[in-house]
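User: Last request for today: this protein with adenosine-2'-5'-diphosphate, please.
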Amino acid sequence: MAWKTAIMGATGAVGTEFLTILEQRNFPLASLKLLASSRSAGRKLNFKGEQLVVEELTEKSFKGVELVLASAGGSISKKYAPIAVAEGAVVVDNTSAYRMDPAVPLVVPEVNPQDIQLHKGIIANPNCSTIIMNVPVWPLHQANPIRRIVMSTYQAVSGIGAAAMADLAEATRAALEGREYQQKVIKFPAAFNVWSHDSGIAEDGYNVEEQKALNETRKIFHCPSLRIPATCIRVPVMRAHSESINIEFTNPMTPAQVRAILGKAPGVKIVDDRARNYFPMPRDATGQDDVLVGRIRQDVSQDGGRGIDLFIAGDQIRKGAALNAVQIAELL
Ligand code: A2P
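Assistant: Here's the final one, the structure of the complex with adenosine-2'-5'-diphosphate:
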């Protein structure tokens, strides 16, 4: 079966990665429509050696379309996903618009592929730092139920979008040359700096990205009792998020057991070379499908050998977004 497919937000950071991944994985396409704002209408993007013309997204864009890969922002998905579904398409939505809707499955294919069957037209792709954490943590949770995960992130600017990546490059160049540069989308000085995640802060002091890690993981794992205090931070890295993960298990867990489980886990690559002090780095994770996992060690502060520490890195645009969505479409 080949799908008549449309990409909503085709010119963005995730949208262009959709094109790369569909090509690399030889996804069965009957046709491919590229949709973006009127600003991009007429632009050409390369796909399998051909130049495809970007069209303006309108309410009429979905006639005959069977699959929509959406990454044009939450408000655009809220407006257009129901229109696409009414036209008979399945929408794999990379925005946060429908993630916590109880009627919409939220899927990481390595974790809960069975939930896809429950869809009524929309399947949500989880938050990027959540996906990257879920991939290595899920097989550990299956072996030994997890009670609590202390997650601290070092997130790339790719999560803000393509314009933020251009901002970081230009801000860094300007800083080195001693010039002023007015950043277009990143709200805080990006060059040689680290700043709290740009999402809104709730009354309890957690930001929205931190709330997503908790609420989305509970939904994906079907584990409402899981506790995840998260701290989400941006770093001046172009793409690929890194995360420190501290886990409290129900029963004792050794680093050797963790290595054995993760050595066989889908979507995970162990990078844990203590002799060379070589561990996961966002530069190494960039362009890779797997989440890199290292610094595997016992958390000696926890009683009874129930604590494990990890450091991980995963490509935010690939596994954190476009790849996960295409894997969902492949399962369909
Ligand atoms: P455009 O490039 O024409 O602005 P990113 O996440 O990298 O910022 O990309 C956002 C994507 O969503 C881009 O493809 C962008 O298209 C698209 N987009 C933004 N606003 C709209 C809109 N109002 N209608 C359609 N597409 C939109």
